[in-house]
Each structure stands twice: as structure tokens, then as C-alpha cells.
Amino acid sequence: MDIVSTTSDEAVGREVGRRLRRMRLNRNLKQDELASEAGVGRATLQRLEDGEAVTVPTLVRVLRALGQLERLDQVLPEEPDSPIEELERSGRTRRRAATRREPERQPGPWRWGDDDEGEA
């Protein structure tokens, strides 16, 4: 199953659990063995494989025990620094927001400054 933006949260959880179960079985590990190696309870590992909610530290421990922690870099790659962060790193700190310029007004017909509209 492909996980896409329209996939429900529950379906994503089930798919993550299915993939973790497949990794465990491919390494020929029982739930008790993996849970012990990861430092979590067997019931917690079972909930994870069933697609139920678990904590991020639990997921990290299980991925580490499976030798798959590096996959998190594929899931959440490092974001490049913003231009503001690069500026701050260069020693200059930003002190205020930039001034927004008003759009230029379209001038009306040219007139002498001392002309009165009512005189001819």
C-alpha cells in the first residue's frame, strides 16, 4: 500500500505496523525478542504492529533494535536553512522587519502650483 496525503491516519498507522511486523519477521524475531531488545513491553510492540498509537521514543527504540533507525532520515530529511538563519549564522542578527513600500500613485494631469481650478 502506498501512503499518500489522502490516506487516513488510521490506515497510515496500520501500514506502518504492517511494515514493522514484516521487518521483524524477515529477521526471524519473535515479538518477545524484539520487545526485549528494544526495551519495550511485548504488548507495546503488539500495539505498534497493530497500528495503534505509541510514543515516538517507542518507535525509535524499535527501529534501532531492527537496525533501521537511519530510515528516519528518509522520512524526515533535514530542511535547508532559511535565508534568515544563514544571515544570523554569518554574525549579523536581524533587528527588524523590512519596510513595506506603498505602491506608487498614478499622477493626475500636470498643473502649475498656483493655478486655481476656477480661474481662466
Question: Quick recap of the structure?
Answer:
With 120 residues, this protein is mostly helical.
Can you tell me about this structure?
The chain is mostly helical and 120 residues long. The chain is built from six helices and no strands. The model has no long low-confidence stretch (mean pLDDT 85).
Provide the descriptors you would attach to this structure in a database record.
434 Repressor (Amino-terminal Domain); about 120 residues; 6 helices; mainly alpha
Question: What radius of gyration results from the CA coordinates?
Answer: 30 Å
Under CATH, the topology of one domain can be stated as 434 Repressor (Amino-terminal Domain)
CATH homologous superfamily (4th level) name of one domain: lambda repressor-like DNA-binding domains
Helical fraction: 40-55%
Topology, please?
Blueprint: H1 9-26, H2 31-38, H3 42-49, H4 56-65, H5 71-75, H6 83-89
Helix pairs in contact: 2-3, 2-4
